[in-house]
């Protein structure tokens, strides 16, 4: 078939999937304008793909590493080798990569509580951390928080323009400061995501003032977006979730901590038990998915990035606020679009849901979710429950009426989801496509 013929049939198929021709045409035009941007993303993906393959070859990954273990999990060679592969990719001395780590918050909790002792102080020089960390640290009182164990906390706000307040950071570092936590991704806050280079500059600054302080980076949503990771620029620990970027959509559960050997060991002593550490923990047969997911992760992350940039360009061109904007460089996979009304947020999420491979027939509705001070609408049709490397969107029903979305295991699914969001916005009379 010629390209024209495929294009014709493609349009027919999209129509069959309830996407109007004018939406398709508008989005196609935007897609064509992004060719160079996408090529640059593919180049980063190629680099990271080779980095992953190199690490797997070096550690002689083989079929036997995919076998499951049970019980204590002594001598789980697949588990130990996977950790060596992670350590090589992140260029660290050691790694803890486990399906038993429940989520990103748990990985961060293990890293923090393993490395902090009563009387120590934790410093966040980048403003408020991710919501769930508030309970972990004790910013919001919670049973078993670090605060309950006598770990104090200090926070330095970012400057107005989102940059680091170096004089205030210097003042905040004191004899008790043991660990500095740096969140790479903005998460759901209105501040820029930091580049790896910026994080490196901050770490150098902190280490100049206090060389023995442990610098930890919350790397969630940032893995494989650039060719280097925070561990390449001085971070003592990088921490993240396997149901985000590094799991490649295949990891059924888990988290990782990579970094200095002593830091990782203290974390492992917390995850299992003092004296046991990394030696225990049966992988229960999920090794293959963790390896294969890591192998796919550079490509999957590239797909998510393309989807984010595509959405930014479409919605910005239609007059909506988008963060990051259509041309900014990217350091994580999260995209915010501001429809500006509750109806817009709902329509956007309905479109994402309608494009899902799983649960496409359900209609998401806003509801009062625990932990939120307003109704929230969530769209997700994922193979792995809650996986936010898969195409997903959520929007709190309150001003500024923004939707945060991320993911797309494949670029073509991301593209379809975003086109469907526009379709639903159009059907609700909230956008008018220029002719
Ligand atoms: C996702 C995320 C976390 C951890 O969230 P979980 O839902 O517990 O996996 C922490 N920090 C950031 C920046 C995140 O994006």
Automatic annotation (TrEMBL):
Q: According to the lineage, what is the superkingdom?
A: Bacteria
Q: Which Gene3D superfamilies match?
A: Methioning gamme-lyase, C-terminal domain, Type I PLP-dependent aspartate aminotransferase-like (Major domain)
List the protein's name. Methionine gamma-lyase family protein
What is the scientific name of the source organism?
Answer: Coprococcus intestinihominis
């Amino acid at each position: 078939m010629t390209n024209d013929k495929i294009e014709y049939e493609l349009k027919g198929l999209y129509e069959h999937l309830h996407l109007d021709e004018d939406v398709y045409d508008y989005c196609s035009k935007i897609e064509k304008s992004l060719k160079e941007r996408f090529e640059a993303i593919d180049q980063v993906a190629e680099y990271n793909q080779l980095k992953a393959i190199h690490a797997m070859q070096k550690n002689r990954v083989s079929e036997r590493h995919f076998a499951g273990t049970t019980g204590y999990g002594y001598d789980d060679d697949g588990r130990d080798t996977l950790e060596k592969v992670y350590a090589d990719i992140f260029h660290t001395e050691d790694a803890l990569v486990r399906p038993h780590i429940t989520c990103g918050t748990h990985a961060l909790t293990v890293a923090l509580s393993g490395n902090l002792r009563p009387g120590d102080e934790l410093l966040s020089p980048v403003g408020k951390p991710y919501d769930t960390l508030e309970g972990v640290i004790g910013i919001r009182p919670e049973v078993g928080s670090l605060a309950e164990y006598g770990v104090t906390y200090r926070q330095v706000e970012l400057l107005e323009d989102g940059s680091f307040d170096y004089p205030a950071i210097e003042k905040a570092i004191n004899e008790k400061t043991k660990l500095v936590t740096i969140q790479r991704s903005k998460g759901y806050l209105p501040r820029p995501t930091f580049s790896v280079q910026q994080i490196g500059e901050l770490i150098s600054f902190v280490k100049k003032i206090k060389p023995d302080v442990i610098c930890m980076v919350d790397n969630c949503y940032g893995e494989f977006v650039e060719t280097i990771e925070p561990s390449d620029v001085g971070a003592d620990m990088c921490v993240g979730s396997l149901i985000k970027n590094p799991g490649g959509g295949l990891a059924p559960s888990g988290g990782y901590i990579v970094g200095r050997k002593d830091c990782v060991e203290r974390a492992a002593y917390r995850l299992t038990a003092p004296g046991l550490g990394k030696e225990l923990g049966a992988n229960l047969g999920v090794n293959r998915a963790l390896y294969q997911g890591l192998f796919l992760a550079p490509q999957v992350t590239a797909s998510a990035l393309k989807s984010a940039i595509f959405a930014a360009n479409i919605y910005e061109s239609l007059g909506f606020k988008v963060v990051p904007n259509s041309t900014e460089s990217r350091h994580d996979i999260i995209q915010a679009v501001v429809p500006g009304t509750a109806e817009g947020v709902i329509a956007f999420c309905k479109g994402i849901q309608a494009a899902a491979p799983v649960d496409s027939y359900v209609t998401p509705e806003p509801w009062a979710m625990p932990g939120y001070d307003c109704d929230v609408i969530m769209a997700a049709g994922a193979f792995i429950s809650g996986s936010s490397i898969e195409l997903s969107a959520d929007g709190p029903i309150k001003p500024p009426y923004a939707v945060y979305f991320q993911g797309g295991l494949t670029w073509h699914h991301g593209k379809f989801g975003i086109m469907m969001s526009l379709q639903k916005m159009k059907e609700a009379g909230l956008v008018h496509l220029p002719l």
